[in-house]
Amino acid sequence: MNIHRAGSRPSLTPSPDYFTGQVRMDPINAIPEPGRVRAVQVTFEPGARTAWHHHPYGQTLVVTAGKGLVQQEGEAIHEITPGDVVSIPAGEKHWHGASPDVGMSHIAIQEADADGATSTWLEHVTDAEYGADRA
């Protein structure tokens, strides 16, 4: 068993290859082999967002603060707020991030594949895509 005390692990700044805007990641867990579940608290400043991506075994997002947006390819953008849980199936192309005027934090939970990868990153979400009509 490991106990990680609050504030005992440094925050991470993810690669700009996969995110637009200011984003901070705070690790929650990374279960050692044979476990494959990974969880991270992600904080997006207003307007920040992921690139399009998908996950080999899907992803669950638990919104903890602020106001966010999420979209699967070919569908309308949905607003998400604290307490919302978003279940994203394996292989579904999507993006998520903060609203234009309010930041957002969520816990992201996903399972790594046999190579340790949790995501396949694709192209950035354009400003036009980000500003599209909402559901």
UniProtKB/TrEMBL annotation:
Pfam families: Cupin_2 (PF07883). It comes from the Bacteria. Signal peptide: none annotated. Coiled coil: none annotated. Residues 42-98 form the Cupin type-2 domain. InterPro entries: Cupin_2, HNL-like_cupin, RmlC-like_jellyroll, RmlC_Cupin_sf. Transmembrane segments: none annotated. This is Transcriptional regulator.
